[in-house]
Amino acid sequence: MSLESVRAFFATHAPDIDIIVTEQSSATVPLAAAAHGVEPDQIAKTICLKAGDETMLVVMSGLSRLDNRKFRDRFGPKPRMLGGDDVVAITGHPVGGVCPFGLAAPLPVYCDVSLKRFAEVVPAAGATNAAVRISPDRIADLTGAAWIDVGQDPASAAG
C-alpha cells in the first residue's frame, strides 16, 4: 500500500518523476547508495521524530546526524525518534522506505540544509526497494517543507 500511495502522490503532483524499484534492498543508507550508484550522503533519509506533542519528518543527507542542541534551539523539546510500529502507523511507510511523499496523514516536513550540497538526492519511495531521484528544492516544494539546520557540523560529527 505504501509504494502505491507514493505512486499516487507523484501521479498527481509530479508525473515527471519516476519511481525506481530495485531488486536489491535500499533500506539503509549504504544499501541505497550501492543500489542507486551514488555516494551515501546523496541519499535523503527521512526520520520520524516527536518533539513534545508534535510529530514530524526531517529529511537530511544520508551520513548526517541530528544535532540535539540545534534541534532544541529550533523546536524547544528534545527530539525523540519513534519506534518502527509507530512510524508505520503514522506515515504508512515501512522503516527503510519512509519518505515525505504519499503519507497516511499530513505531517509537518522539514528539510535539513545538508541536502543543499547536491543537485539531486535519492529519497526512499514508500518501500524498502523503491526510491526517486529529485532535487532537494523539489522535495521541499512538493511537501511544503521548511528548510532548517539541525544536522551536526561535519567537523564535530567526525570527532
Overview features:
159 residues; alpha/beta; YbaK protein; two-stranded antiparallel ribbon; 8 strands
Short description:
The protein has helices at 2-13, 29-36, 68-75, 84-91, 136-143, 154-158, and strands at residues 20-21, 43-51, 54-61, 80-81, 109-112, 122-123, 130-131, 146-148. By secondary structure, it is an alpha/beta fold.
Q: What would you note in describing this structure?
A:
The strands form two sheets. Strands 2, 3, 4, 5, 6 and 8 form a six-stranded mixed sheet that branches. A two-stranded antiparallel sheet has the order 1-7. It is of the alpha/beta class. It has a single domain (2-150), classed as YbaK protein (Alpha-Beta Complex), CATH 3.90.960.10. A hairpin with a 2-residue loop joins strand 2 and strand 3. Helices cover 31% and strands 20% of the residues. The protein is built from six helices and eight strands.
The portion of residues assigned to helices is 25-40%
Largest sheet: 6 strands, mixed
What is the total tally of β strands? Answer: 8
Please give the CATH class.
Alpha Beta
Topology:
Layout: H1 2-13, E1 20-21, H2 29-36, E2 43-51, E3 54-61, H3 68-75, E4 80-81, H4 84-91, E5 109-112, E6 122-123, E7 130-131, H5 136-143, E8 146-148, H6 154-158
Parallel strand pairs: 2-6, 3-5, 5-8
Antiparallel strand pairs: 1-7, 2-3, 2-4
